[in-house]
Amino acid sequence: MGATETINAIKAEIADISIQDCDEVLDKILKAKTVLFFDTGFFEKAAKYSKRAKIIEIIKRMEADITGITIVMSELVLYELRSVDGLGLNPVDADFLKALYDEGFCITILSEENLCDSMDKYIKRSATEKNSQLVKFIYDNKANLTKLCGVIIRDGDFPYIGMLENGYKVPREPNYVAEVISAIIRRKQDRDSLAEELITLALLFLLELPGRTRYMFCTNDYAAITRFNKAMQTSAGSNESRAACVSFLSFVQYAIQEKIFLNEDKQDILRLLRCSVGEEVLVLRDDKLPIHKTWVTLSIESAAERLLNGERFLDMTHKK
């Protein structure tokens, strides 16, 4: 079963708990105060976490009212969360998505290829302007959208050969953006980063819309965080501050701050951190000025204890 068929099967399975109409999805995104985009790894680990209620409580605390939060699952992330037979979602992930819905969260399904067309309701632009924006976003972020650009450059069957070369004449066709994204999705391979990179691309487009909505990219892939931040710095302009990443480190620190995680939850904290950074880590301490911020090697146990004692880390990564 191909990606499109699997995505359609999953969408049918979760139709009762999610908003899927493209225009309505965009409306829910723009009316939210905080929008959470989950990548595959983050969602999978959260779904498998034994104390799921605490994960849900952390998400709820991000806004004073749960109605201010919209959760976005991109179609390609849904594809990566598929069951073994490809006929629906992995049961654990489906159960977690249902739990979020039952808690009162607005669950939306983002069609990456149709997003730009939905935005036409809010931005007046010609097909050429829209197409040129896509090419510019991708061209300017060749170092940050590496898998996506690799597909475009190296796949001899890609329908728009040369779109990342100097002097490329951008087509005027109104379906160009949708066709490019669709062609990229059809070339999806297991364990590649296309889902995450298409989320980055979608957010660059969304940040062109007026408003104060905050966009949170929830990922535990530190390389993806670096690429995402660089893409925002490159192309988001004055709206860069409206987009940020959430990792399990920032998730845990927020839960401790909000007293969702207490000392007796140390083992739960360790489970969350171990699944992303392992047993020995490098942490970037938030030292008081004038001391320069420093990287320190710690065991994951020591890192958890320090977090519970109120110490704050700016970053944490696996020690190679």
Give unreliable regions as ranges: none
CATH class of the largest domain: Alpha Beta
Placed side by side, the strands forming the largest sheet appear as 3-2-1-4-5
The name of the CATH topology of the largest domain is: Rossmann fold
Characterize the biggest β-sheet. Answer: 5 strands, parallel
Strand content: 5-15%
Specify the overall morphology.
globular
Mean pLDDT: 92
SSE order, as H and E?
HHEHHEHHEHHHHHEHEHHEEHE
CATH architecture of the largest domain: 3-Layer(aba) Sandwich
Gap between N and C termini, in Å?
38 Å
Number of domains: 3
Rg, alpha carbons: 20 Å
**Class by SSE composition:** alpha/beta
Helix and strand topology:
Elements: H1 3-13, H2 22-31, E1 34-38, H3 40-48, H4 52-60, E2 69-74, H5 75-80, H6 91-103, E3 106-110, H7 115-119, H8 127-140, H9 146-154, H10 176-186, H11 194-206, E4 214-218, H12 222-235, E5 243-246, H13 248-257, H14 266-277, E6 280-285, E7 295-299, H15 300-308, E8 313-318
Helix pairs in contact: 3-6, 11-12, 14-15
